[in-house]
Structures are given as C-alpha cells and as structure tokens.
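Lab notebook, design round three. We kept the backbone fixed and only want residue identities now. Task for the bench partner: fill in a sequence for the structure below.
Input structure tokens:
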C-alpha cells in the first residue's frame, strides 16, 4: 500500500534527463538448498535489509520445482508380497517381504497390504502407492477381474479399497506390465522407445512399452505373449489351448517336457523316476550345460517357441528391443541361440542384426521399480 501511495503522488510528466544507475547490488533473496529445510523445493527468503525500509516478506515455498517425495511400491505374488520405499530417482530406500495369505481370503490380503504399506511409508510423506498385481485387471478403475495366483479375487476393487484404508492414492497395473516399465526406466530397456518383455516364470507373461508408455490395449490385457500359439498340435497349455509359448518356455513347461523326455508318469512313478521328478528348471539347465542331450533338447524347444512368437510380435509392432526376464531367463545362454535362429529365418523386411535381444537386468526388482514409476505418475494407465 505504501508503494502504491508513493507512485500516485509522483507527477505524471517528467522532463527527460539522463539518469545514472548505481552498480548492481545483490538481490535481497537467496535460494536455500531444499535439504536444509527437509523439503524438496527451494525456499526463497530475504537476506538483506536496507536502512529505513521495511523488511521484505518471506515468500515461503515456491513451486519452481515439484515436490519429490518417495513412494511405496508393492509387487504381489501368489506366495509372497514384496514391498519397498523408493525415491523419485529410482533408489530403493527400504525393503520388506511378507507371505501372501491366499488361503485366508481377500480381506486378509487387503489387511496385509495395508500393514505393509504403513510400515514402509512410516513418516516419510508418502502420498502414493504403486501395486503390481498378477492377472487380468482394469488399471484405470483399480479392479482385479481375476488372478490365477490369488483365486479369491474376482472383480475385486483392490485399488479403491486400499486407498480408503490408507487415505492415500493407489495406482495398480498388471505385474508383467510393471516389469516392462521397470526395465524401461532403470534396467536393460533404458533408452528404448519401444520394447517387448517376456517374463518366464511359472507361466509366461509379457509387457509392452510403445512410444515410452505401457500399452494396455482396449481391455487392459495387451501383452499376453505366453498364449501365442506356436504349434496347434503341441503340448496342452493351462489355458485350454495347445502349443502356447507357455507350454514350452515356462518353468511348468520345461519340467513337463523333461519328464516326457524320460517317459515319466508323475501319477505312477517308477523307482528310477524319483531323480527326474525332483528336477527343476535350474537343475535341468545345469544338465544341459554339462552336455545332457535330453536337457539341451528341452531348452532348444523352449527357445524355438519363444523365437517364433517374438518374430510375429516384431513383425506386427516393429519393435527392436526384446528382453527376457523371470526365473527361467537364468538359462538365457541356452535359450538365446534358438531364439536368434528363429528370428533369422522368420523376419521379413527386418535385419535380424538390428534386434536387441537381452536378458532383463533388474531381476526381482523390476516389478518394484515399475510400480514405483507408476506411483510417481510418469506412466498413467491407458484410459478405459
């Protein structure tokens, strides 16, 4: 008000005369580092006071830089739930892991999630939770339609229920999508505009990044690489079809092929079959590396199935970065040659040497970091 009154008292017309400007003086404000105040934006405050003038007001906290609070990221599995508090730069600040109480029902799982989120959030100004969920979901509405690993979820509004329980924002997506997002943000897919991630675990999942964003499709179920049929007369798949990639390249498919190679019937095992029945994908891979012909044939078939499916996806989507993740990808050295041979034979108009085929880099942290990025708001689910 004083400044306005002084301006009104000045004459409207002044004679033009040269003016001498004083040397520039330091600004009466300084920007103090954010961490000094425990916040994530700069504070502007007056530091000079000239004699005879009122002290300039403290302008408080500016909005020049966004607040960079941590988020809580959760990766839900059928046997365990992994969680972490993650910084805006992708640094994992704290971890926790609890058993998934599937047998106790949906309410028990919700309560377990709420306790885990509260424990990780603590007093760290967490505002958003990111969830990776196995199964068919509606990301925008936060609804889990069905989950093979958590059969008690049927059209479960998990996102809204957890948000009400915690009083925080909750964003969720399919776990394979978030594995792809995590690798794109902080893993082997960094810098790629488009990528396809195949997750090789108990089953085979897939995640698509197109133009830097997760691609959900019309119903939120895009990326089901595991149920791409590569041989309609092949072994039966859990989905009811035959010859899906999952029937060859999943942990279940590899163990099944190994038992068939030895003509083992799990329902009526012979005494010599005990060793075969005890084998896992890891032990079968070890046998293959030591030269076991049957074990090598199992991984050859798995790599061939992957190569056929990946070639089709590359041909349709024009993707140049393909990552293999999950536990079975630990045998990447056994899978890669067969995958590359199929790409060499099947791609039309695409130079196979331009395809970047790599093992995913983040391991079990891919889903956590993907959920963190989703929570940070840099990968909003597609509208539905």
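Proposed sequence:
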């Amino acid at each position: 008000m004083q400044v306005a009154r002084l301006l009104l008292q000045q004459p409207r017309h002044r004679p033009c005369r040269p003016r001498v400007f004083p040397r520039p003086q330091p600004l009466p404000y300084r920007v103090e580092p954010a961490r000094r105040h425990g916040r994530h934006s700069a504070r502007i405050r007056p530091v000079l006071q000239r004699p005879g003038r009122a002290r300039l007001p403290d302008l408080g906290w500016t909005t020049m830089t966004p607040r960079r609070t941590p988020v809580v990221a959760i990766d839900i599995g059928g046997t365990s739930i992994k969680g972490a508090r993650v910084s805006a730069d992708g640094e994992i600040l704290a971890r926790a892991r609890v058993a998934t109480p599937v047998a106790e029902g949906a309410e028990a799982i919700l309560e377990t999630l709420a306790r885990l989120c509260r424990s990780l959030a603590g007093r760290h100004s967490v505002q958003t939770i990111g969830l990776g969920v196995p199964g068919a979901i509606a990301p925008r509405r936060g609804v889990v339609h069905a989950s093979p690993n958590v059969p008690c979820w049927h059209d479960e509004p998990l996102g809204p229920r957890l948000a009400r329980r915690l009083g925080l924002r909750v964003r969720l997506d399919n776990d394979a999508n978030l594995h792809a997002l995590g690798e794109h943000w902080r893993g082997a897919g960094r810098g790629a505009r488009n990528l396809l991630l195949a997750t090789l675990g108990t089953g085979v999942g897939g995640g698509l990044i197109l133009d830097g964003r997760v691609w959900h499709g019309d119903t939120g179920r895009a990326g089901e690489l595991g149920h791409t049929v590569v041989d309609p007369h092949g072994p039966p798949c859990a989905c009811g079809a035959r010859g899906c990639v999952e029937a060859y390249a999943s942990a279940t498919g590899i163990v099944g092929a190994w038992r068939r190679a030895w003509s083992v019937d799990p329902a009526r095992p012979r005494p010599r079959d005990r060793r075969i029945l005890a084998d896992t994908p890891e032990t079968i891979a070890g046998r293959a590396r030591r030269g076991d012909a049957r074990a090598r044939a199992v991984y050859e078939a798995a790599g061939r199935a992957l190569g056929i499916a990946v070639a089709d996806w590359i041909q349709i989507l024009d993707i140049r970065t393909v990552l293999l993740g999950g536990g079975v990808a630990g045998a990447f050295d056994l899978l890669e040659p067969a995958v590359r041979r199929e790409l060499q034979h099947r791609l039309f108009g695409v130079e196979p040497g331009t395809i970047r085929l790599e093992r995913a880099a983040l391991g079990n942290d891919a889903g956590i970091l993907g959920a963190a990025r989703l929570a940070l708001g840099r990968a909003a689910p597609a509208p539905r």
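Keep this in mind before ordering anything: The longest strand covers residues 92-99.
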